[in-house]
Each structure stands twice: as C-alpha cells, then as structure tokens.
Amino acid sequence: MNLDTPYQFLKYLWTDEIINNIYEESKRYAIQKNPSKPLTLSENEINQCLCICIFASLVHLPNCRAYWSEELGFDQIKETMSLKKFETIGQYLHFNDNHKHLPRNHSNHDRLHKIRPLYDELNKNFAKVPLERHLSIDEQICSTKVRHYMKQYLPMKSHKWRFKFFVLCGISAHLSKEGIYSLEIINRNRIPNSKIPTEEVFNKMERGHSMEFVGNYNDIEISVTARKDSKTVVMASTFAGEKPLGKVMRCDKKTKNRV
Fold it and tell me: Taking the C-alpha atoms of 243, 236, 160 and 256 in order, what is their torsion angle to the nearest 10 degrees?
C-alpha cells in the first residue's frame, strides 16, 4: 500500500465510489423531499464537506457555526466552503434510498439501512489492510444526540447517550493514530479458573500493585493482569503482560498532589 500522505490515506478508505454514492443519494433525497427544488451539488463538495468534518473533529469549538465566525473561525474552512453550503449539504446528506427501507416488522428489516452502503464499503476497505500478528478486539464509543433505538445509555460517562462499536485493531503506525488497544479490559467473571485474587483482597493492596496469571486456550497463551488503580483493573491479552513495569505520576486525593 502506498499511503505516504494524509490524503492518500483518506482516499484509501473513502474511495471515489463512496463519495459518488453519497452524491447520488443526497441528490435523490433532496428530490424526494421537494421535487421542485433539486440540490445543487458536486462530488468535490462532498469531499470538502468530509474534510471539514474531519478537521472539526480535531479542533473542537462550541458549535458548528463557530468554525466560520470572525472570532474563532478558521480561514482554511472559510475558504473551502461557505457556512450556508455546508449546512445545506448536512440537511440533505444521505447514504441510502429511504424508499427501500423496510419496516421493523419485516423479516428483512435492516437496522443499519440508513448507512448500509457506507458501512459495507468502509468495512471492505478496512479488510484490505493485511492482518498483523498481534490484534485486539475492543469497544469504541461514539457520542450522539440523534434519536435512534440502537444507541445506549451510559450513566457513568460524560456523554450519556452513545453508539457502541466493536473494532479490530493492530499495532501498525497508521492505525495507532486512531487509538490502538493491545489490551482489553474485562470483567473478572469472564475469566474461568482465574488465580487473580478477589477485588476485596486487591483493595487492601497499595495503589500500583499488579499481578499476572498466564493461562492457555487452544494452545494460545493468554496473559491476565490485574492492576490496583483507584479501582481494580483486569486486562487480558495474547500480546502484552504485566512487564515491563514503569513509574507514572498520579494524583493523590488525600494530599491533592501528584505523587
């Protein structure tokens, strides 16, 4: 794979076929909504809109319109697309034909119909990346304000309502920019015959204490490591274990200092 620039990496995943589909479906939706007012749009503007969204995900401002404001706005965004055009695209942005959406009581109802073409194409492109030896499956959370019955309520999180994804991750340089997990946090009751002490025992130990137990499943060694933090954290991995150990600065609630 020749992915030397950010743009090459972007187009490897967001191919011309995906952009063309978004272009066609967005125009279709605009006609379905108001046949007398078709959407004036180009595929290049879809690309520009996508890049603005990526930029905004890295540079956080209070609201969308702030990126075009005099005080907080960015010239790169202002020169790329007007606010009115960006909001118009967002109003009609679609990935699939609404008329083909089957009702919930239909046997072939697709919960992801709205994004099915995008979902399938992105997964197909992800699958082209050669699998590495060390992989991890973990959860990825996407906060949202949309109304959808698939989102979950997580009361302990800062953003309560979220979609939950499961992602397959490696340790390559490209993917590490997205946040790679070589360890998976698990519940203690998922580990059969675990020799890790109970949480009651672990809570009596000093913060920073850790313990490792190595098991075997289908001739594959799995390291289960428990670490005492503010709570006991249990992790399982076929790649990493308890060592190497290191020292980090943490906040002491009693002294209000970093120790």
Answer: -30
Point out the least confidently predicted range of 153-157, 175-179, 222-226, 238-242: 175-179
Q: Looking at 177-231, which runs of residues are DSSP E strands?
A: 184-185, 210-217, 220-228
User: 208 by DSSP, 3-state: which?
Assistant: coil
The answer to whether 235 and 222 are in contact (CB under 8 A) is: no
Which pair of tokens denotes residue 143?
A: 């906060």
State the average pLDDT for the chain: 80
Instruction: Give me the pLDDT at residue 182, please.
Output: 31
Phi, psi (rounded to 5 degrees) for 225: -120, 130
- For the sheet containing 161-169, what is the strand order? 136-143, 161-169, 152-153
Task: Work out the widest C-alpha separation in the chain, in whole angstroms.
Answer: 71
Mapping DSSP to helix (H, G, I), strand (E, B) and coil, where does residue 228 land?
Answer: strand
Residue 125's nearest CA partner among 252, 249, 9, 248 is 9
Q: Specify the residue for token string 């073409």.
A: 117
Nearby residues of 218 by Cβ (< 8 Å), 6 or more positions away? none
The pLDDT-based confidence of 180 (bands split at 50, 70, 90) is very low
- The whole-number average pLDDT for the span 27-45 is 92
How far is the C-alpha of 44 from the C-alpha of 154, rounded, in Å?
A: 38
> How far, in Å, CA of 106 to CA of 111, rounded?
11
- CA dist 112 and 115 (Å) reads 6
Question: Which tens digit of pLDDT belongs to each residue from 45-95?
Answer: 999 999 999 999 888 898 999 999 999 899 999 999 999 999 999 999 999
Residue 236 corresponds to which amino acid?
A
